[in-house]
Design goal:
The chain is α+β, with helices and mostly antiparallel strands and about 220 residues long. The chain is about 60% helix and about 10% strand. It has two domains: about 5-75, 3-Layer(aba) Sandwich (Glutaredoxin); about 90-220, Glutathione S-transferase Yfyf (Class Pi), Chain A, domain 2 (Up-down Bundle), CATH 1.20.1050. The chain has nine helices and four strands. It starts with a strand and ends with a helix. The protein binds S-Hydroxy-Glutathione. S-Hydroxy-Glutathione binds near residues 37, 52 and 54. S-Hydroxy-Glutathione (GS8) binds near residues 10, 13 and 55.
Length: about 220
């Protein structure tokens, strides 16, 4: 079908969750294909030959790659319902800056907690608190990162916020004292069906991570 939307995804992926949330916010139905990342499908390799990573949105047979680019594409194509980016140019630029910050600072410090040595993990936790404080400040008294409406930056961050719940269990990571507004924001986001139904269960993510580490033979 000319307009058919297909998403190549992986259940535990925070980047895949961004695309799931964006499509749910727009009320778009799509075919969902879950990849085995240890044995990628020929379709994934064909659709994302450069990075060979999920998520990929295939729309009308054509691939769109990179989660933040996919969200912007979704917002442009299905522009009549639930805008995800603000209409004001300055606020759009700000939302893009925040998403870039999340893709780099928040993601990089989270990776240290997942994969680093005990020392790296402590460093990752300190950094993640610092970067979370930046988002806490940015949020201020607004309900969402972009203002009154749930949008681009919230979609980009909430799958990583879901990781914070996992970190709380196994890395003693807690932002409640430093970032109370962000914690309220997280609860507010989770109350949206589009978010709660799109995010993986933190316990399952943790179990998958343990299995993954076990396979790597990593004892950190
Ligand atoms: C990151 C996608 C990604 O890392 C985006 O879409 O925003 N910048 C990209 N995808 C991972 C799964 S989530 O950890 C992936 O597909 N990995 C497969 C591989 O690296 O071979």
């Amino acid at each position: 079908m000319e307009d058919e939307a297909v998403v190549l995804d992986y259940w535990a992926s925070p980047f895949g969750a961004r695309v799931r949330i964006a499509l749910a916010e727009k009320g778009i139905s799509y075919t969902h294909k879950f990849e085995n990342l240890a044995n990628k499908s020929p379709l994934l390799v064909e659709m994302n030959p450069v990075h060979q990573k999920i998520p990929v949105l295939i729309h009308g047979g054509k691939p769109i790659c990179e989660s933040d680019i996919i969200i912007q594409y979704i917002d442009e194509i299905w522009k009549n319902n639930s805008p995800l980016l603000p209409s004001d140019h300055y606020h759009r630029a700000k939302a893009r800056f925040l998403v870039d910050f999340i893709n780099t600072k928040i993601y990089d410090s989270s990776k240290k907690i997942w994969m680093g040595s005990a020392e790296d993990q402590e460093c990752g936790k300190m950094e993640l608190i610092e970067w979370s404080k930046v988002l806490e400040k940015e949020l201020g008294d607004k309900p969402y990162l972009g203002g009154e409406d749930f949008g681009f930056a919230d979609i980009a961050f909430v799958p990583f916020y879901n990781w914070f719940i996992v970190f709380k269990t196994f890395a003693n990571f807690n932002i409640e004292e430093d970032c109370p507004k962000l914690v309220d924001w997280g609860k507010r986001c989770m109350r949206r069906d589009t978010v709660s139904k799109s995010l993986p269960d933190p316990q399952q993510v943790y179990e998958a991570y343990l299995e993954f580490k076990d396979r790597l033979g990593n004892t950190n």
